[in-house]
Write a structure and sequence with these properties.
Blueprint lengths: L1 H18 L4 H22 L3 H5 L4 H24 L2 H8 L2 H13 L5 H18 L9 H22 L5 H23 L5 H27 L2 H8 L2 H13 L5 H31 L1
Helix pairs in contact: 1-4, 1-10, 1-12, 2-4, 2-9, 2-10, 4-8, 4-9, 5-8, 5-12, 5-13, 6-7, 6-8, 7-13, 11-13
Amino acid sequence: MLLAVALFSVMDAMVKWLGASYPTVQIVFFRCLFAFVPLALLIWRSGGLGPALRVRQRRRMAERCLFGLGSMLLFFYCFSAMRLADAIAISFAAPIIVTALSVPLLGEPVGWRRWLACITGFVGVLVMIGPGGGGFEPVALVALLATLLLALAQLWTRRLSKTESNAALVLYVTALTAAASGLALPFVWVTPTLEDLALLAGTGLVGGTALIVLTQAFRSAEIAMLMPFNYTAMIWATAFGWLIWEEVPGLGTWIGFALVLAGGLYIVQREAQLRRRARQVA
């Protein structure tokens, strides 16, 4: 899990660097195109292309792909338009939004403890994006929208995981995102230098490899044990931002992140307890 987070953080830094010279759509296209190289290994280990292409819930899979496409486009734009650590901190609100939306969308019960954790997390988000926070930027609202789309993608993944394979989920999201960004590419194309072409390819190679490592981590341990390590991305984002762009997150970012961290960790631990109780009853 630590390796996966580190690889994703390297990819995010590469995206931010490229965002100063290339349109977001072009970066997304190369990210998805070259991700097929490491993802081919995941598909092969999952039984080959045949099982990965089989989908039972096509409409929901299409919706999941659209949520993923929108989230990636908006996050990649935010990485280039705001401090990297700020964008990453806001993205950590996704599990809190998932919990809140699971009531109307999935009909799952949420007790008062998890609602309190959600409220704590939302207060943290308001601290980060609100005026008077650690350096308010209007683009933070775009990051919040990207986080909402990410949460919806995670909710749809939870639905689809009951009938679809991990390889199918990864393959269709990557393929649709590559196709959609590829259609728009002729209208925004900027010819890259050889060095930047290597970086563009690197976003896909590193991101695809990170996804394989993350999948292996989830196979090896419960999510409740792994998720706390996901927050180490904030350390990487702060380090990259400071070393490369001399960015320093404001006090509001750190206060808001602490609230989101507290709410998110509690939700993960509480859901793990409820799952264990359900297994014991069964």
